[in-house]
Amino acid sequence: MICISPTCRLALFLPALCLAVSVMAQDGQTASVLTAKQGISSAGEAAHCFNTPDRRRSQEPTTQRIKITVTDVEFRGDNPLPDTIQAQLVRDIQQLNLTIALSEADSGWLFEVVNPIREAMRSLGYFKALVTATPYLVLAASQERRYVVSVEIESGPQYRLGELQVSGATVFPGEQLRDQFLLHRGELFDVTKIRQGMESIGRLYGSEGYIDVTPEPDTTVDEENGIIDLLIKVDEGGQYHVRMVETHGLDPKTERLLKSRFEPGQVFDSLAFRRFFDEQKAALPRGVSLNDAIQVRRDVRDASVDLSVDLRPCPTS
What we know:
By secondary structure, the protein is an alpha/beta fold. The chain has 3 domains: 111 residues, no CATH class; 94 residues, membrane protein fhac (Ubiquitin-like (UB roll)); 76 residues, Ubiquitin-like (UB roll) (Roll). The protein is 26% helix and 29% strand. The strands form 3 sheets. A 5-stranded mixed sheet has the order 1-5-6-3-4. A 4-stranded mixed sheet has the order 2-11-12-10. The protein has a 3-stranded mixed sheet with strand order 7-9-8. A hairpin with a 3-residue loop joins strand 5 and strand 6. Helix 3 runs antiparallel to helix 4.
C-alpha cells in the first residue's frame, strides 16, 4: 500500500520533469542552470560524441527487469472525480510503461499510479487530497506481473484561490508575472495551472538571460472559508551572457546560423536556444540525442555561458 499526502513546499507544485541540454559549472561539477520550469535540466558530464538511443541501450549493462501491467483500477468509496475522469485515469494507468528490477521493492511502481489520480484531485481544488493505492497480484510470470489496483481517496476540503501576489521581482512588473497564471481569484485552486504559471515565469526570465530564476510558491490556507492565498517569491539570480559557441559535426549553414543568433557578449536567451534546435531538427543527424550533443557551461563568477554542440558519433567498438 502507498499513501501520498500533500505538502505546501515547492515540490508539491513542481514534480521532476525535463529534458533538453546538459549544464556544467566552470569547475566541472554538475550545476543546475536552467530549472525544470524552463525545460532544461542538469546532467552529468557529457561525452564528446553522441550515440543514437538504440546504440546507447546496446552499450549499457543490462539489468533484468520485470514488466508491471495494471489490468484495472477500482475506485472504492465516494470521491468527487466525475465518471469520465475516472474512466480516463483508468485508461491512462493501464497504458503506463512500468518495470521494476528484481532488486526493487515489488510496490515501488505504485507512485506512477497514484500520481495522476492525485493530480486530478488537485486540479479540482482538493489541495490536501490523500490517495491510497493497494495492489492485488492477479498474475505472476517470469517476465511480467499483473495487478488490479484498489484506490481510496480522502478528498478533504475543496479550496479556491484567494490573493495571488508576486514578490522579489525587479526585471519584470509584478502584473506581468501575475498574468502568467491562468487562474483568478475565486476559481478552484488548481495546482496544475499554478505549476504551468511558474514554468511560464521561468521561460520568461530565461528569454532575458536569467537562467537561475526560481519562483517559489508560499501558501496561506484559510480553512474556515476554504481559501488559499498564494505568494510567488521570485529569486531572479543574475543575467547571463554568451561567452563562446563551439560546434562539431554541424553542417556549415546551420553552424553559421547558430553563431549568428548567439554571438559572444549578447544576453543568453535560453528560450531561443531551445527553439533553435526545434526549428533545425531536419539539419541534425537522424536519431541524435540532444541530451548528449548539447552542453551549456556556465561561469557563475562572470555570469557567462559557453555553448557547445557536438554531433560527432561515438566509436562503435
